Amino acid sequence: MNQTISRRKALAGSMGMLMAAGTAPLAATAAATERLKLEDPAARAALLAKIKGSLSEETVYTFCRLHLYLWLNDGNLKPMLTMQNLNAGTWRKLPNGNYSGTVHEVGVYTAFDTDEVIEYWENPVTGEKREIWQFVGGPLSVEFGPSGIITGPEATLKPKEMRMDVLGDKLIVPNQSAFSFPNPFKPDKWPKEAGAPMYYWDSHYMFSANVSDVLNPDIASAPSTVQFQNLVSFHPWLGMGSTPGRTYGKALGAKLRSLDDVPKAARAAFEKKTPEIFDLKNWGSKPRNDFAEYMQKRRPT
């Protein structure tokens, strides 16, 4: 018997193996997509809850570092500040099958891309040193259901679903939000704080989780990473007045297993400036609003 294999047959066999190897990931992706039921609105709502919060009744923490830049409608972005951000979402399943979260959130400003907590920021346009105004917000409500994402009237995020994607072994969950409201700061009383008559807040989020974790019925809260950008009218505390432009923010973070996962330096910053995030029971039911609190405590004399 002639056991010599021709070059043509060898190449044909190799190509067949490569094609089979190439179709294996595609088949796995198709199978994962089918099991996730991405076309089913109710299934998508459960996926949102599992990746962003939890299917069980529990409080889930998410930590992000938000790097902020000035955009003055011309030139490049100018590095500005970094916000250490901690979000606490308390989740439960509603009788109608939807998932509800009550969200508390704080942010402490540090020198750009560092953990150095600062008390003042120098406005590059006016040269004025402005006292830092830390961010505290909530409780706010969010609900995931077949009709989409619903947030309470206090929220500055009004997220709209975008297409979920399976890429390799990851489930990518994006959404977008465009929100605006009348600026409560008027130039006659707040010449340094007031900007345009309308305040604009655009946010684009992306959560990512392992498909294996999302499909695991024994996991109620899938470990996930988060990345978001926002483009926001100047906050009054910056003292930009009528300067055209916005702040651009880029955040990177992750859902935490517990508060023990908060980076040490960030934890110290929160404990010093916004300790209420560690005592949710005594936070109070009335939503805190940084705009309203700024107006009350920093009113010009």
How would you describe what is shown here?
- This protein is an alpha+beta fold and 301 residues long.
- It has 5 helices and 13 strands.
- Strand 2 and strand 3 (99-110) form a beta hairpin.
- The model has no long low-confidence stretch (mean pLDDT 90).
Describe the structure in brief.
The chain contains five helices and 13 strands.
Summarize the SSE layout with pairings.
Elements: H1 7-36, H2 41-52, E1 58-71, E2 78-93, E3 99-110, E4 120-122, E5 129-131, E6 135-145, E7 148-151, E8 159-161, E9 165-167, E10 170-182, E11 198-210, H3 211-215, E12 224-233, E13 246-255, H4 264-273, H5 290-297
Please state the overall shape, judged from the principal axes of the Cα atoms. globular
Total helical segments: 5
Regions with pLDDT < 50 over 5+ consecutive residues? Answer: none
Helix and strand element order: HHEEEEEEEEEEEHEEHH
Helix content: 10-25%
Annotation keywords:
globular; alpha+beta; 5 helices; eleven-stranded antiparallel sheet; two-stranded antiparallel sheet
